[in-house]
Amino acid sequence: SAQSTTDAPTGGVEISGVTKYYGDATAVDRLSLSIRPGEFLSLLGPSGCGKTTTLRMIAGFEHPDAGDIRLSGRSVLGLPPHKREVNTVFQAYALFPHMTVAENVAYGLQQRKVSKAEQRERVAEALDMVQLRRFADRKPTQLSGGQQQRIALSRALINRPSVLLLDEPLAALDRQLREEMQLELKLLQSRLGTTFVFVTHDQAEALSMSDRIAVMRAGRIEQLAAPADIYAEPASAYVASFIGQQNFLHGTALGGDAVDTFAGALRGRWGGEQGLPGSTAVAAIRPEFVRLAPAGTAEGPGVDGTVLGVSHLGETLQVAVDVGREQAFLVRIPAPGAPSVAVGDAVRCTWDPADVRIFADDGIPETA
Ligand code: ATP
User: Fold this and answer.
1) Could you tell me how far CA 332 lies from the centroid of its own chain?
2) Are residues 227 and 262 in the same domain?
3) How far is the CA of 51 from the centre of ligand 1 (A)?
4) In the predicted model, what is the mean pLDDT of residues 217-242?
5) Which residue in 11, 232, 293, 368 is deepest, having the highest Cβ count within 10 Å?
6) Probe target for ligand 1 pocket from 18, 20, 42, 51, with the most ligand atoms within 8 Å of CB
7) Strands 346-350 and 302-312
């Protein structure tokens, strides 16, 4: 039942009320998501939250039990994968080892019986996209992991899909290469204007590349927003714990914008729905918003403790402070000009209430 709309721009993805069961388990639960044409959208969440299943339903490898999926305005539920204007890049690049790079890239065109001359031209163009034309005659085994992944990307782009689905394509690469590839992927995507739907469980990766991030939990989207907004205003403790680092102080909601914790009544601002007084709540404070002072010298909200460890993270210094709880309280201060801190120092961690977010306690573990 393909319902077509003529004015929908190419490359948009509309997922409406999609549910997918595997036996008794609900992998995707009434998920709705509208992906804009030309957008770089990441599906982010822990293992098992339904990211891959969602991607496989867009690709056509899995079929929803309920709901609809539209590509460029047209329902694709009745279409097999090869009839959808999408292509997929997987973590395992799945290059054919006995074929050259050029033959691997040309594979999709061969299947479609494109002429040899056009194949040559388009393979050159697709290899240029990933700056690997000079490797056209090599075999995949003669390439590094990063180069193999770029070939897989070039192979997926040769048919100029309006939507490219990427399932943790960088997960197998080492950290430095992964960061280079993140930049490269983002540049390629904006140059081509192709819609990218990118699955990852790596929040740094999602933050660095995406126009918007959909944070998933148990088959649903918990928050959909631009990276900066998710970072600054997470909608729940779950999202706050998943993006960046947090100190969570568990307690009880007081009337107004405050929560009663082991560190006293802390003021902050509610993220998500405000809890009733007496309900369980958490105060969340990011390590980079905490200041460190010698014990007894600082006023205002804070916690006292003893320095457990100091780690140098390049531009920042991370200080773990024992505040008498199960987990250390984390503080991040810019390394240049940082005060000298040593293990055993008695300190006070302080913050500005404007940097504190209060959330309903949704079961995230205590970290301070
Ligand atoms: P990961 O990052 O580990 O790939 P994910 O967020 O992509 O996780 P999915 O792979 O979509 O999650 O899986 C969602 C849920 O559905 C999980 O509980 C998983 O065990 C289950 N599931 C996925 N595929 C199948 C399958 N073919 N048969 C049965 N259960 C499945």
Assistant:
1) 23
2) no
3) 8
4) 94
5) 368
6) 51
7) antiparallel
Does residue 104 fall inside a structural domain? yes
Asked if 152 and 94 count as a contact pair (C-beta separation under 8 A), the reply is: yes
- Residue 241 domain flag: no
Give the domain CATH number at 41: 3.40.50.300
241 phi and psi angles, rounded to 5 deg: -75, -25
Q: How confident is the model at residue 8 (pLDDT cuts 50, 70, 90)?
A: low
The minimum-distance atom of ligand 1 relative to the CA of 50 is 11
pLDDT digits (tens, 9 = 90+) for 120-157: 999 998 898 888 889 999 999 898 888 888 899 899 98
**Residue 82 is part of which domain span?**
13-232
Tell me whether residue 108 is in a domain.
yes
- Number of separate domains in the chain: 2
**Ligand 1 lined by 49 (C-beta under 6 Å):** yes
ipTM score: 0.93
H helices within the chain, ranges in order? 51-59, 101-111, 116-129, 145-157, 175-192, 203-209, 227-232, 237-242
CB 186, CB 178: distance < 8 Å? no
Distance, CA of 220 to CA of 236 (rounded, Å): 14
pLDDT, tens digit, 9 for 90 and up, residues 188-198: 899 989 999 99
Q: What is the mean pLDDT of residues 109-126?
A: 87
Tokens 């990307």 sit on residue: 153
User: Tell me: the pLDDT tens digits for 152-188?
Assistant: 989 998 988 999 999 998 887 888 888 888 988 899 8
Cα 20 from Cα 27, distance rounded (Å): 6
